[in-house]
Amino acid sequence: MRPRHPLTLDILISIFVAEFNRYSNEGRRRRLYGLDAPTKTKEDPEKALMSPSLHTGPECLAVVVGYREDPELFRRALDSYKRADGCRFILVGVDGDEKADMEMVRVFEEAYPEDSAIVHIDEPFGEIAMRTYKKITEACYETPERCQEMTIAHCCQLAREILAEHDLGLGELGGVSRLCLYQPHMHKKAIMFTSFIFSIVISDILGIEYMWSSDSDTIVFTDSVRRTVETIAGDPTAGGGSSGLVVHNEDDSMTTKLGSAVYWCELYMTRSTSASSGTSDCQSGPSTAFRVSALPSILYPWYTQTVFGRRMVSQSLRPLSSL
């Protein structure tokens, strides 16, 4: 009899490295909380009192971006962050400032009526960055990396000034902890770039080390953000990491079932080989966390990235891990 699902060598290797990756990620989380410490240390009552609770971990800033999202789905996504462990600040980016785009702003106001603010950005920061980079390269003889660093620093200073103008009381008792930015419509990378610049500044003000990035139609589980951030925090060499997605309408049709199967096959099998060694050639856009300190050096190359001479503006976080 022929087996219906033959196990070839490459499949066996993929299964092994996928499971090894899961084991390694759990090891990173255990190291973060000292759960892999010697038994005597863990049994010491005094040290046990000093150890952190399993339900506390690194705080993060969540960035959620979208364009004319379905109001009901967007509301469900925003509501899910109210229960997300470790999420200290929520930054929503809306790609558009016309009448139709105000629906997302309205949903934000309804979801977060307290400790929230709305700020209009006159010009997307990506365009400001490109113009600034051109001026810097024409005026001084610095390396491209240094020019990019100066460009991002300029953008961060502008963001800091905008936040100061609105007197949001960041980090103060009763200050804003939910912020909505909306700007003229361009493309997804434009609103992401602006949101990331503001997240760098806000993280610096609040002393937050990690940033979670997602889409306006993605609903997070209570522990999704925390466990993803824990994986990064447990490895000082890690600049980012991503978690898996569950297709909420998987049972709607055969197409959605196939889409879910293809996604999980891609996640577990195709990426398992590189992930098992602590590297990734692709971060899942709707469910990714980054160490904030890793962002400034890659944001400008990511925003201006070209393939065969054409700029890539429709994708999300996928190129961030390839720079």
UniProtKB/TrEMBL annotation:
One of its GO terms (biological process) is hyaluronan biosynthetic process. PANTHER family: HYALURONAN SYNTHASE (PTHR22913), MANNURONAN SYNTHASE (PTHR22913:SF12). One of its GO terms (cellular component) is plasma membrane. InterPro entries: Nucleotide-diphossugar_trans. Keywords: Cell membrane, Glycosyltransferase, Membrane, Transferase. The keyword Membrane applies. It comes from the Eukaryota. It is found in: Cell membrane. This is Unnamed protein product. One of its GO terms (molecular function) is hyaluronan synthase activity.
